[in-house]
Write a structure and sequence with these properties.
Helix content of chain A: 25-40%
CATH architecture of the largest domain in chain B: 2-Layer Sandwich
Distance between the termini of chain B: 50 Å
Largest interface: A-B, 38 and 46 residues
Largest sheet of chain B: 5 strands, parallel
Strand order of the largest sheet of chain A: 4-3-2-1-5-6-7
Number of helices of chain A: 8
Number of strands of chain A: 7
Oligomer: heterodimer
CATH topology of the largest domain in chain B: Aconitase, domain 3
Strand order of the largest sheet of chain B: 4-3-2-5-6
Number of helices of chain B: 14
Structural class of chain B: alpha/beta
Number of domains of chain B: 2
Largest sheet of chain A: 7 strands, mixed
Radius of gyration of chain B: 20 Å
Structural class of chain A: alpha/beta
Shape of chain B: globular
CATH class of the largest domain in chain B: Alpha Beta
Shape of chain A: globular
Radius of gyration of chain A: 15 Å
Bound molecules: iron/sulfur cluster
Amino acid sequence: MKAQGKVFKYGSNVDTDVIIPARYLNTADPKELAKYCMEDIDKDFATEVNKGDIIVADKNFGCGSSREHAPLAIKAAGVSCVIATTFARIFYRNAINIGLPILECPEAVEKIKAGDVLEIDFGTGAIYNRTRQETYQGQAFPEFMQNIIAADGLINYLKNNA
Amino acid sequence: MGMTMTQKILAKHAGLEKVQVGELIQADLDLVLGNDITTPVAVKEFNKIGIKEVFDKKKVAIVPDHFTPNKDIKTAEMCKVIREFAKEKEIENYFEIGEMGIEHVLIPEKGLVVAGDVVIGADSHTCTYGALGAFATGIGSTDMAAGMSTGKCWFKVPSALKFVLKGKPSPWVSGKDVILHIIGMIGVDGALYKSMEFVGDGLKHLSMDDRFTMANMAIEAGGKNGIFAVDEQTIEYIKNHSTKEYTTYTADEDAVYDKVYEIDLATIRPTVAFPHLPDNTRTIDEVGDIKVDQVVIGSCTNGRMADLRVAAKILKDKKVAKGVRVIVFPGTQKIYLEAMKEGLLEIFVKAGVVVSTPTCGPCLGGHMGILAAGERAVATTNRNFVGRMGHPESEVYLASPAVAAASALTGKITNPEELA
Ligand code: SF4
């Protein structure tokens, strides 16, 4: 499984309240949520993001609430992968459970700049920076996580394996 | 190598003799919880799995509290989805208007969690129940759906930080100040993926309400769970609220911790977290001149009796400062009634405070107290992220009920010690 796209870059502690503010939580429709994704730290994100694009952020991405609406909004916005130095644990679970690929890779976060174009191989965890012609090694996904992402989330995976 | 409290509870619920840090396990669940934001998504996922019944009608709890009483048509529709789900699946612990409360205040009060339990909740502050010596952690809607159907959840066994509490806190210092102090010390990711275990002599000076406040904010340090050693106070609380059987787990003498912190409670000052992260803390002595437009006292962090009592003590026979909007929201109907009987509500209303029905409302910028651009609030809640209580250019300062009530009287962040 692979992903390819342009980078949107953010700092540490990007919390679920800025990923999707509570004022928009009166719906659970991913497409509707995607319209307001990242609004409070990056007003232009929702209009500028293209299918396949990649979010790169520093430490503790997704801290705060357990709202699954946060990874759902990111996924529905078209983002193919989030790379961060570390993830908050509930966000980490939620992302895997809904089938949004995420990778921890401090080196990549340090070297990647906003607007760079990346290619990611989830099988090996390799991140290739096409703009800078560099490769960074992230953690490969454990097999059961790859299976969940391939099935497009835990529920489909449970269904397929019932 | 010994195990921590958390590791022992997880091992027991996974049917294992021992577990190790990093090990992936499947644990049996004693309770699965959801609210009005997360449950509609979980219901959708649950229906996709294609099974008819929840694993145990007694072990699922649903509490619509975030946008209730419903703030608009969309949230009314969301609540309808879960009301119908609860009815159809005959879920015994479904609580709404009239008998409800903020989930993390209500669930312990109803005796639904006791020491030794494993609880997951589709709300990040589920970690509150660690105050009872249970393993409780926040998860998302998909995990809730899977949990409701199978009664199990996968976990990675966490390592732990140990906090040895000593000494006695000074009169205006509460559990809120202790936990803000700790988060300020270790940072918002200081306990990422880890348990925070609270032990020591100092525990006896922390009431159950203080402990709920502290366990509640473990997530604000990134923790997987916060857990308190069980003592006489815990057992008394459990016996007064529950008929469930409880089990006390104590960490092994040779349990391994990533780090051990010794904290002398006597040295902790009233503490305030500045915008926009809970670890941006200062002691009350370093706060300076911070004017506020709104004061919010309540939430799953500080909406319990001890919190209302301390606020009432400060506000009694006084008036809030002109131009400051003060909102008190008790945690549950039971607390509301008790506060009424004790005369606290009268003190609040006479002081010029608005008393709300139990709801999450203002805490997450939902309704009942939203901030405009440029406005500032001091709140006893747990998060001060950008836009948390309203406009992205508003500000939230986190503090104890004592500091919040003192600030209500002066219109700026105020040390309660100075009023006494
Ligand atoms: S009171 Fe605030 S923190 Fe607690 S459950 Fe409600 S919204 Fe979440």
